[in-house]
Request: fold
Amino acid sequence: MEVDIHKSWKPHLKNEFEKTYFKNLVGFVKEEYKNYRCFPPGGEIFNAFNHCTFDEVKVVIIGQDPYHGPGQANGLCFSVKDTVTHPPSLINIFKEIENDLGVMYPSSGDLSRWAKQGVLLLNATLTVRAHQAGSHQKQGWETFTDAVIQIINSKKENIVFLLWGGYAKQKVKLIDKTKHEILTSGHPSPLSANRGYWFGNKHFSKTNELLNKFSKETIKW
Reply:
């Protein structure tokens, strides 16, 4: 079975694609897209991998679910298409970047510019039914994306993992802290950010400091 994913990932993920759970997942997703409105568009489901090749991964940001409103999700966690109004979590991300680095708040919420610099923007679940948050959870996506994290963990070194909020922090058990760096904080959603768990984490300057230490090119956030 052929999955529409960048060729750099295929040798590392081919075993996953052949597993029963993944074949069942593909069947589920096809039925959902046939019978309901789902996001992101079919051709953008694997955008996180298509915009950030395996060799270029330097930073991993883990989200939970794609946005479930029309025209929002583009296959990259926290990202929206160019002309779409910025959701609250993304607003808080950009505000923290502004406070941390003095970078002006951008007009576009499309984070593919980060992905192309080596930031893997990975949702744990890659698809969702319109207006139904979490509707595609526990169908196999989490097994697949956990495998992605474990492959990056085992085959690469000095990756910076950004784990925001309780759900992402659970992934810490998949990461070898002696090989990689892990930065954790509250989630950028208003609920968490307004309680003081997000703003001031300085994750964007800290990430660049770590990349400098590893002699890797920093990210233009």
User: Anything to note?
Assistant: Residues 20 and 133 are 25 Å apart (CA to CA). The chain has nine helices and six strands. The radius of gyration is 17 Å.
